[in-house]
Amino acid sequence: NMLWTAVNERDGLGDELVPDYITSVKQGAFYGWPFSYYGQNEDPRMKGKNPELVKKAIAPDVPVGSHTASLGLAFYKATKFPAKYQGGAFIGQHGSWNRSALTGYKVAFVPFKNGKPTGKPEDFLTGFIANAEKGEVYGRPVGVTLTPDGALLVADDVSGIVWRVAAK
Predict the structure, then answer these.
(1) Which regions of the chain does DSSP assign to beta strands (E)?
(2) Residue 46 is part of which domain span?
(3) In the chain, how long is the greatest CA-to-CA distance?
């Protein structure tokens, strides 16, 4: 078994930098903070402050979009959803607050096989953005977990609703 985490990366480098990510947690590994991001990409605000540590920084496993505020993470071990979801990761994306265009505000899914990611994030549960131009949202998914009967629960801390997504 491997420990996985969702990471919210740094702000202040523009709309498209730096991608949030999910990654396996490797003992003794250095993921860059605060000197570099996404491996050995040196943060210009920290330029030259610790080059030896930057050389040791490893890249995370799966980028999930810049400023998506990916917070919740749950692996699907049940069998009620279609086979493509077996073993994959659901990610609660709370959504951006500091971009020119909204991003996140959904539950994303990353397919896995044998404990390893096999594809890019894809939309699973959307519809939380009411009016992108005005920055209006219906909700912000945050926590995700699974029920014993194989349903996905999604906590939304704007509407105060816990959404239940189940296969028919």
Answers:
(1) 4-7, 19-24, 36-37, 41-42, 62-66, 70-75, 89-93, 106-110, 112-113, 116-117, 122-125, 129-131, 136-137, 141-146, 152-156, 161-165
(2) 4-165
(3) 56
- Residues 6+ away with beta carbon under 8 Å from 87: 75, 76, 77, 112, 113, 114, 115
Dump pLDDT digits (tens) for 89-102: 999 999 998 888 89
Q: Which tens digits make up the pLDDT trace of 114-136?
A: 999 999 999 999 999 999 989 89
Question: What is residue 22's predicted lDDT score, i.e. its pLDDT?
Answer: 96
Number of domains in the chain: 1
Amino acid occupying residue 121: P
Residue 30, token pair as written in the block:
């250095």
Residue 54 has φ and ψ, to the nearest 5°, of -60, -40
Q: Could you tell me the pTM of the whole model?
A: 0.93
Residue 17 above 90 pLDDT?
no
Instruction: Please tell me whether residue 137 adopts helix, strand or coil conformation.
Output: strand
